[in-house]
Amino acid sequence: MQYSSRFLELNIPDSFLNVNKIPDATKFITIIYICLTTSLFCIRRSLFSKLLLEDPNVDYGLITSPILQMVPSQIWKYPTSLVLSNFIDTKAWKVAVNLLNLVIGGSFIERNWNSSKEMFKFIVVLGSLTNLLIIVLTLLTSFISKKVTLDVPLDGNYTILIGFPIIYRQLLPETSIINLKTPHFLAKNFRFKLLPIFVMFVMTITQIIWFHHFAQLFSIWITFFVKLVIPEIFSKARTIKLSFSTNSRPSKCPGNINW
After folding, report:
1. Distance set, CA 163 to CA 2, 79, 167, 214 (Å)
2. Is the pLDDT of residue 254 over 50?
3. Where does the chain cross the membrane (predicted)?
4. What is the C-alpha to C-alpha distance for residues 160 and 171, in angstroms, rounded to an integer?
5. CATH fit for domain 2-237, picks 1.20.1540.10, 1.25.40.880, 3.40.50.360, 1.10.3720.10
């Protein structure tokens, strides 16, 4: 898709927007995401309606479902939230962004990886391990700083919002998204390789200025480093293993005798 005006140029590869056939893993994850997010909304609204009869000043934002939401103080009782929180969101803007990112971006990534298994591993396995690390570090930090509250649920679903841009950077590093033409002092060719830093900058600023949620900011940065570092480690390990396997094969030159 291309769009051009005297102010900017927008360029997104057609393969990126191809959603004629959503791959299996992306389709399954999208369905689970919609079902669990909708279920959480219904549960919270139902509890809110009941509590509202008892207390007119009840805060909807404080109503949680620890089975689905990752609440540090209740994680020992509901460890399922480490996995299930990968598939839920409570904010309307994040639901819209993640659904669009999952259907379009997830389809593009899975087609390029040519593996449903790798897609599941990236979102579910790596996402759950990231959530476990977030919980452990949050609990440890709570002993040092009283600003860390353990009764407020942590967002365990930053894999799509933060992890996908890292994959886009790997698959489309030099592809331009937006090219600003005017004003000239702001003229910039914005490529996919800059997308992860841009997303992290926006998420960090919003947490610091508006939300003031230290544990949530902690969660965002842990997710970023895990998604950035762990796939690189596995990729290098796989390359070394293949190289070692190739070099260790016995030579079949005519002068060699194989016992």
Report:
1. 25, 23, 7, 20
2. no
3. 25-43, 122-144, 156-172, 192-211, 217-234
4. 16
5. 1.20.1540.10
